[in-house]
Amino acid sequence: MLSTIIYRSHLSDDVAIKSLEALAVKANKVNESFGVTGILLFNGTHFFQVLEGPDAAINKIYDRICEDPRHHNLVELLRDYAPFRRFGNVGMELFDLREHDKATVLQAVLDKGTSKYQLTYEDRALQFLRTFVESREKENYFEIPPASAWEFIVDDQPAIEREIPLSIAENYSFAFQPIIDPLSQRIVSLEALMRNATGGSPREFFAQHSQEAFYRLDLESKKLAFALANRLDVQGLTLSINLLPMSLVMVPNAVDFLLNEIAANGLVPEQIVVEVTENEVISRAEEFDSAIKQLKAAGISLAIDDFGAGSAGLLLLARIQPDKIKIDRDIICDVHKSGPKQAIVQAILKCCSALEISVIASGVEKPEEWMWLEAAGVCYFQGSLFAPPKLTGISAVAWPELK
């Protein structure tokens, strides 16, 4: 199977530009030995490379490229498959863009084409190449320092670090996790995450119930979440709870139940954020819309959780007009080296900016993920990099500090 990978990267500061010619000669020999061909562009700062060859060989070469210390901030722009090679005459050829005008380079690249069909810029891979040559995407190149540039220091005088005895509930409890603004070192909210009695996933517990009981339990479990939040004294912070969209429909008077439990535990509606997921199909649209209106009218805020994980994201965004969205962990994972994920995040940020919707990156585990997202414009973060969920308690936050 013929595979294609396109990436861009940043030349390391300690690498002499004059050494690139020798690098290209060596890479050409290595690529030829693997049956890999392609084109390498350099603009004085960034590399851009198209690699083509057998799938296993491409992956082996690309793994070596990712480990090469002569460049950093490597971002995979495209991974695709094709019936024919675009560039088949050389193992790898280097074009130094500083020595050519843009039109000359573009034509020279076309002239190197070996596909049985004439190369045109309707080809997606060549569209990437043209964009790089014409420097049309530089404003989206977020150059981040290595992870070692930051330390994450647990607050020795935390604003919140509390724990209460385990709940009397036999089969489930809640863990709490902060949502933070790292650069201002501020906790902006807490999320109550349902857990089994030992702190693990509640899936097995839920699986024991019928669908109707499942929705009722999903709703009624929030009584314990509010009670624990009250005992943890979360005054001054917003509290997020997760609800399946259909729990608001299938359980009679669901909104009234939430409002009663909020008041009974010394909280106020304006303090609560209801997070609904886009994963579940909403089958009774009018009743769901009515419940959403009730929540908003009472002062409760709305968020879409796991945004990007399901099939209803944009429709649900338009439909309920949430106050916040939380980008799904699968999009956040390794976003610093994935061009497609970066484009998705940037589109989400642009859309939400136009709608005045706050964006939270959830499931952040690596410093590089946080740094790229912060550079892109995300302000609020949740994840084990800063503070893990704590059963019936709230962990101290590890704040980032430059070394």
Features:
single chain; Alpha-Beta Plaits; 2 domains; 5-stranded mixed sheet; TIM Barrel; about 400 residues; alpha/beta; about 25% strand
Model description:
With 403 residues, the protein is α/β, with parallel strands linked by helices. It folds into two domains: 2-140, Alpha-Beta Plaits (2-Layer Sandwich), CATH 3.30.70.100; 147-402, TIM Barrel, CATH 3.20.20.450. It has helices spanning 20-34, 55-67, 102-111, 124-133, 203-207, 211-220, 222-231, 247-250, 254-264, 285-298, 313-320, 329-332, 339-355, 367-376; strands at residues 2-11, 37-42, 46-54, 71-81, 93-96, 150-154, 162-163, 172-181, 186-196, 238-243, 272-277, 301-307, 324-327, 358-362, 380-382, 390-391, 393-394, 398-402. The strands form four sheets. A nine-stranded mixed sheet has the order 15-14-13-12-11-10-9-8-16. The longest helix has 17 residues, at 339-355. The radius of gyration is 26 Å and the shape is elongated.
